[in-house]
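User: For my dataset I need records formatted as: sequence, then structure tokens, nothing else. Please produce one.
Assistant:
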Amino acid sequence: APAPAAGSSSPEGRIKSSPLARRVAAEKGVDLAQVSGSGPGGRIVKHDVEAFTPSAKAPGAASFAPASVGASALNNERIPVSRKRATIAKRLGESLFTAPHFFLTVGIEMDGLLSAREKLNEKRKDKLGLNSFIIKFLAEALKRHQALNSSWEGDFIQNHASVDIGIAVAQPDGLITPVVRDCGAKGVLQIEAELRDLIDKARNNQLKPEDYTGATFTISNLGSFGIEEFTAIINPPGVAILALGATVKTPVVAEDDSLVVKKIMKVTLSCDHRVVDGAVGAGFLTEFKGMVEDPYRVLL
């Protein structure tokens, strides 16, 4: 029998996939339309998502070989701008050209956190995602560096008592940023449950305005696409956003000058210089790095 095409759809146009597969895909940032389903009727199951890599060509997928000379796959189509895309363009354009951005990048050793996560997941049916730990550590660091949990209001700076962290989620017509509220008062398990629910709603266009507005800090994670380092535009009214890259095995010089292999994730903090000074941003990023590299100081 022929291999199922990537992203098999139901008659209603929805991609046939199990709830667990959708959840894992949301955590990994995987587009289910590119995944081949091995379940009944081409249904995508958890194993299909875990086995998928962006660089791998899905069985049965259309070939993307260059077109022959004289032929063109391009067109002159004029695409109407949706209200959502217009709003994104307006807000991010205003942010980039109004807020003076500066950027700080650091490499973080992920070995300790990945090991801790693996141990915590050993007896769990629903595995804890990396983003939930990142959000928890960010919340703790933001409580110690409140300048990054504030907003610029023109003639005053507004501090926020609650740490409300948004996470950028890709949709076909643009980005949306569901928000986990009051992260500083929640543990990793509660953050995980709320984040899964929000991402599932985002993938199915079921978010309400109160679910994706008012973030005091934002993260953008492109690591699942193999992107090692990037900068992100601040999501207003916040004054900072953290860009998370892929975790990469990297040779590191140890204290005894020997070479050891570490799993390194590069993160880049974008700050609004009207509110956050360089030393303040550096202090926050150093605090966050320390928590990730020694996770039990926060988790226990």
